[in-house]
Amino acid sequence: MLRFIFIRLGQAIPILLAIYTITFFMVRAAPGGPFSQERKVAPHIIEQQMEYYGFNDPIHVQFFRTLWQHITFDFPPLTSYPGLTSKDIIADTFPVSLQLGLLAMIVALSISLPIGILAAARKNTVLDYAPMSMAMVGICLPTFVIGPLLALLFGVWLGWLNISGWFSVYDRILPACTLGLFYAAYIARLTRGGMLETLNMDYIRSARAKGASERRVVLVHALRGGIMPVVSFFGPALAGLISGSFVVETIFQVPGLGRHFIQAALSRDHSLILSTVLFYAALIIVANMIVDIVQILLNPKLRYQ
Amino acid sequence: MLVPGNKLSAILRRYRSSLGSIAIACLLISGCSRSDQESTRSLRIGNGAEPNSLDPHFATSMAEAHILNGLYEGLVGPKGDGSDSIAPAIASEWKSNPESTRWEFVLRTDARWSNGDSITSKDFLESYKRLLDPELAAPNAAHLYLISNAQAYNEGRLDDFDLVGVKAPAENVLVITLDHAAPHFLNSLQHWAWRPVHKASVEARGSLYDIANPWSVQAGFATSGPYALESWKRNERVQLDRNPYYWDASSVEVEQLQFFPFENQQTEYRAFKSGQLDITEEIPKEQLGLHVVSERRDPALATTYLLLNSESPALAQTAFRHALSSAIDRELLIRAIEKSGFPATRFTPDAMPGYPAADFEMRDETDVTGPQTPLRFLVSNRESSIALAEAIQEMWKRKLGIETRIQNMEFKSLLARLDSGDFDISYLAWHGDYVDPIAFLGIWRSDSHFNRAQWRNPAYDNLLNQARASNETVVRMEHLAAAEALLGNELPIIPLFWKTKNYLVSPKVNYWPESLIDLRSYKHVQLQP
């Protein structure tokens, strides 16, 4: 297992390097620079700022310098937030996004797994059709519809919860539910599909023949195989959730990383763009690796491959 | 579906534990009070974008200005009666020579920084020296170019700061010598670039002239205004508490100002509706007119306009530019798209006090021949800008038979296109920095770097120079009005609307001063008893 982890981490290095290179040149190819504003700044001031941030150096010098800064975690000051570095921004906002992502995942799993399993076990009954139709609606309704609806209901009409901010524990409820409901719908369908496939397998028939109770067949024998599609989906979903959904963060004014991810690009903050992209990439790589490990633990056949 | 009684009780028994937890959760949620932001003597303000910097030498956006306005006070401030007229602030009195080129300010002796240090004329001098230092490359340096030799020092053409027209002959006397006559000088001091920073606070975190000195990113620096920074949680809240050392602390009624960033208008609106905000930054267009009690529409010094590329051959004829302007039904655009504001009949808004300029002449030139190729109309990808461009495109097509090709793009890309001159027409807005027509007319000077129209007109420059040479307000205004008339004749830009500042104010606020430049005097704010 350790060998597997080392190999995977080794593979991550060229991937991150490729992502760095592509992002570095894409950012520089984008029209408009970090200092262009609607209210133009005097040319000699822009020139001095370009010099200060090292944008006047030859491109290869900038490329390797920025690369080295990212390897050694010694980040330069940001152009959009003078006085701060990417490290400050990520340290400020990542814990928020992590919390939101994990809470959303808990919401998603606690709703979707029981529904999916029940729907598969009671195939083609009301218990299958009703939740699966709801799930279909859930997938179709984007977060920017669900979010404001929940905010209107619980914030404006009922007045129970704050509709923006991240101050008290209760402020976590609406964003986590909005983000969680969207994924819940998806995971419920995946669970049902996986379970249905597994329930038709020979070993399930054997289990039934041996007299195992229906509950044991579904929850012990079938679930382990049926949940595999969910586990595969879990990796990218978790990374997506944790890196923060930009939309949900904007709707509820959550101070997470997702907004910086977008803002950095809009303000052409080269350093912040690179750092957030690399951070996001590393997160996906780690999440996928964890998923692979979980899959190996769940499915002994994979251990020999 | 009917469920027999015994079956129902069986179901209830079976799910008793889950029902119990659902009930507890409901109680928890319904019983919870709103978060701790509410306090009777605090004001919660929606503030648009997240500030990038709280250094008055670097901050350029209005979101930053709103906060800096609480943190810093300058030589003079607004009266607080809603008229933007000038009142003494850190300077208790002042006088100028008859030419309006030399201004002497006497600072009040009880003016203190929020750490208790006295505010002296040296603080102003050091602060202006920092702002003008070429190494710092501060975007707001240009605001001080009124001072003699300031521009040369900032551009690195002059090394000796002693030659720049700022002197501190005594601890409480500041003398500023200007480059040219400026009877409007006191008005231009309203901009936050003129407010002093506390040198020791800056130096405590690094070099005075380091662009990335992090002195203002967290609380702890001394301020000169009615408030001091309590905390700044990025993308969440900036909190200012009352500065106990402020010279006029007894008139500051609001104990705490909380600024909340909102990128999304609808989120801000919902926050106001649910009682989380006392004042919003704006009102979504769909909600305009729905709140009789809370809605405010303050006049503002802001004009939206079509920028015409003077170097584009398609727009070379003056008659054609006039035809484009008069073919636009501004009333209709306001009714259908903008939902607020007034049709602009000249570039400088008519909310500008004491400015006698006439309206631009509307010439009905219908028999003009347009260019062979469609005009390239560049707009940002904001929904309302695109809608507006499409409406104007249709008006030109119907009335003049002119084809226009609209290209919408992300804002920085748009700016890059405008700066490269690769466009015919674009849609922009200009907000006046201070209450004087030159804050509008100055951008179309030949040597102004704001002049994206690439319009160069020696007669126009000459009129502005004559205004500069004049220390009589009436004569100066006449020159400026003549320059405005020339702008109306030549039409290098087509004014569209004069904007209003639309926002919501909670009934909890008794008095919230108006301001044409959106810099309100917080010490005059009154809350309900």
Description:
The complex is a heterodimer of chains A (305) and B (529). Chain A is mainly alpha-helical and 305 residues long. Chain A contains 13 helices and no strands. Chain A has helices spanning 2-29, 43-52, 59-71, 86-121, 126-140, 143-157, 173-199, 202-209, 214-226, 228-242, 246-251, 257-266, 270-298. In chain A, helix 4 crosses helix 7 (173-199), helix 4 packs antiparallel against helix 10 (228-242) and helix 10 (228-242) runs antiparallel to helix 13 (270-298). Chain A is flat, with a radius of gyration of 24 Å. The model of chain A has no long low-confidence stretch (mean pLDDT 86). Chain B has 529 residues and is of the alpha+beta class. Chain B is built from 15 helices and 18 strands. Chain B has helices spanning 5-14, 16-31, 62-71, 121-132, 150-154, 185-188, 199-203, 265-273, 318-326, 330-338, 383-400, 411-420, 438-441, 458-469, 473-490; strands at 42-46, 76-78, 86-88, 91-96, 102-107, 166-170, 173-177, 227-233, 237-242, 256-260, 295-308, 342-343, 375-380, 404-409, 425-431, 493-504, 509-511, 526-527. Chain B has a 6-stranded mixed beta sheet with strand order 12-16-11-15-13-14. In chain B, strand 13, helix 11 (383-400) and strand 14 (404-409) form a beta-alpha-beta unit. In chain B, helix 14 runs antiparallel to helix 15. The longest helix of chain B has 18 residues, at 383-400. The N and C termini of chain B lie far apart (57 Å). Chains A and B meet through helix 2, helix 4, helix 6 and helix 12 of A and helix 8 and helix 12 of B.
Strand-helix topology:
The complex is a heterodimer of chains A (305) and B (529).
Chain A: H1 2-29, H2 43-52, H3 59-71, H4 86-121, H5 126-140, H6 143-157, H7 173-199, H8 202-209, H9 214-226, H10 228-242, H11 246-251, H12 257-266, H13 270-298
Chain B: H1 5-14, H2 16-31, E1 42-46, H3 62-71, E2 76-78, E3 86-88, E4 91-96, E5 102-107, H4 121-132, H5 150-154, E6 166-170, E7 173-177, H6 185-188, H7 199-203, E8 227-233, E9 237-242, E10 256-260, H8 265-273, E11 295-308, H9 318-326, H10 330-338, E12 342-343, E13 375-380, H11 383-400, E14 404-409, H12 411-420, E15 425-431, H13 438-441, H14 458-469, H15 473-490, E16 493-504, E17 509-511, E18 526-527
Parallel strand pairs in B: 1-10, 13-14, 13-15
Antiparallel strand pairs in B: 2-3, 4-5, 5-7, 6-7, 8-9, 9-10, 11-15, 11-16, 12-16, 17-18
Helix pairs in contact in B: 14-15
